[in-house]
Amino acid sequence: MKNILPSSQRVIAVVLTLFAAFFAGVVPSQAQTPTVLYSFLNGSSDAAFPTGNIVQGRDGFMYGVGAASGRGANNTGAVYKISPAGVESVFFNFPAQFPDCISGLTLGTDGNFYGTCEMTNSSPGNIYRLTPAGVFTDLHDFTNGGSDLPPIQASDGNFYGVVAAGIYKMTPAGVFTMIHTFASPDVQPISNLTQGSDGNLYGTLTLCSNGNRGCVYKVSTTGVFSEVYLFSDPTGYSPCTGVIQASDGKFYGATDGGAGANNSGDLYSVTTAGVEVDLHAFNSTTDGSCNPGSFPVVNMLQVNDGNFYGTNYGGANGNSGSIYKLTAAHVFSAFLFPGNNVDGGQPYSTLIQNTNGKIYGTTSSGGANSTGTFFSVSTGDAAFLRLQETSGKVGSQIGILGQGFGPSSVIKFNGVTVNAWSRFGSTFMQAMVPAGASDGFVTVTTGATTLTSSKKFIVHNSWGTGAPMPVAAVAACSAVLNGQIYVVGGYNGSAQTAVQIYNPTTNKWTTGTALPGALSNQACAAVNGEVYEFGGTPNVGGSQTNAVLAYNPATKTWSSKHAMPTARQDIVAVVSNNVVYVIGGYDGNRLSTLEAYNPATDTWSSESSMLVAQSGTVGGVVAGNIVISTGAGQSVDTGDTESYSVSGNAWTSLKADATVRNNPCGGVVGAALYAAGGANRAGSSFTVNEAFTPSKNGWTTLAPLPQATTDPASAVSGGQLFCFGGFTGLGGTTLNNVQIYQP
């Protein structure tokens, strides 16, 4: 895939760099000092010159690959198995027909190991599976070039990987398809993939639309490709790692060109929107150098305390490389390998944090036998749990890696105890997600020791709760801006001026500048960095307004905009291509009106009317079209569902919602429109929760709302549906609760 040297030449290169390292000086360390646990043996009896991805198996041992020619029983390399204390053995010798399997391994959710070979004796490489019992299966032979990077297993259970030609998908059964073919200007992949929290796959390329400066890209699991960030000369270019998504939601990686006075590359972060920040400019003498080289490219690691660790293959003492640390506050330090045959050098494997809290890694050279070492680094982190699956539905089986499990261990999902689980030794469990579980951390308590998962577990098709609203409200409107949800106005005995701002990340509320006048039953939308408010009524049963207001979060002020052509309430506002489409509503009669507002020009236009007049609908954009449903009709609620083509300015009737209601909580998440709760014309509220998928033109019944609600404010953020307040039904209680649905 990259400029890969033949195996024999790689060994010669390692020997030459060892010779240079022997005569190099020693630079004092700054980051944590590694402890050498094992020196690989020279000859065919061991997995010498380790490279690629290291994983922790279900048995608590770590597994990796030493794939140099002339090593292993068949002279084609081997897979090693090593304990946290450094007790090593050869787990598997690659067959003679597989001479170049340098990718390292991925642990599948089935407990098997997966990897790739750059070449075989009969093909340009392959994808293989290796069971814990050592059974090797060739799953797929490449036809247009192999890969030195292992596939990743995504949240959909399928494996995704990179070859020079493009990005592939392989099912657990081995069914292979190319989902994206690289084409100029976006070619020459440098890294494997990382799945982001948005479900997309992220990686880096050498050549992009900025020439040979490289880029970070994303591709959906269906193959939709786009550039995320283009590197440039002043701030670092030529990526030498892939990217990882950190706990702050940003992606982190390294380059080896540009940046700083030394022109040695840098560490950077980049958001999903392509906003990049330079974090540290490398100095090849004091930091080592991040060099793509000719071996598998490895990524950084974020450990449980929030700090980052990584390796530089070259630079520094005799080109021996380094281990570096970047704190969560972005303070950099590095340990330089001393350039001798004791501690090793030139790390070409990923770093892994074992569930005991320590970091482990390898060098590809040095050590007592000049064939590489296996080392540990203490971070101060306590033992923890690693979840094999970080999301699932109630009733699904989840694999849990950890330490010290026993027959009396107690497993909890966000505080809800698991009743059905199985233990396989002291380092692996399988647990069934219990009923009532919600998004949160998994814990295992054994005696007086409680271990906590490094990531939250997401319970699909489930409801959670957020911090209560400071002011209860019904018929407020909401919009998401800069990751925060603005809940505006509403009714609580009378119309309100309150602007309440909810942060889903911190689960905390703050107060924004109040509306100039009290409003309820209006619509909100966020576009071009501002929150817009449309229509509504100052009092329940009072006259409707056509006023439009805009809130600027920088100045914290409201300003008036050009009024809507039609005064109305109980409307829905949907943003498409930075234009706000205000749909339906009520002005004494149900309306089919569609009016489009362009914030850039502060102008309105009238568009084609809906097929059925409705108020109190939910809506959003799916696959480029606006979809609305579940409103109050002129004389009877119908469950009418319609799709509006923005480009064609035309409406199409779709399958109606069988649950006839109005004013539910709703919005679009992914490829579906969700509707939860609402009320019938008699004022009785519902708990029913349904999703409409336009591609299937069908409705699906889902987990019900915990609290029956009608007229809440609705928002979609982070792939979740938020329902704020509302009331329990006609003449019922006004609510301040926050109900959160995870599809």
Short description:
With 743 residues, the protein is mostly beta strands. The protein has 1 helix and 64 strands.
CATH-scheme architecture of one domain? 6 Propeller
CATH topology of one domain: Neuraminidase
Question: CATH class of one domain, anyone?
Answer: Mainly Beta
| Structure class | mainly beta
The helical percent reads: under 10%
Computed over alpha carbons, the radius of gyration is 29 Å
- Average pLDDT figure: 91
The fraction of residues in strands falls at 35-45%
Please state the overall shape, judged from the principal axes of the Cα atoms.
elongated
Distance from first to last alpha carbon? 38 Å
Total helices: the number is 1
Q: pLDDT below 50 for ≥5 consecutive residues: which ranges?
A: 1-29
Number of strands: 64
Describe the structure.
With 743 residues, this protein is mainly β. Among the domains are: 47-150, no CATH class; 386-455, Sandwich (Immunoglobulin-like), CATH 2.60.40; 462-742, Neuraminidase, CATH 2.120.10. The protein contains 1 helix and 64 strands. Strands 14, 15, 16, 17 and 18 form a 5-stranded antiparallel beta sheet that branches. Residues 1-29 have low confidence and may be disordered.
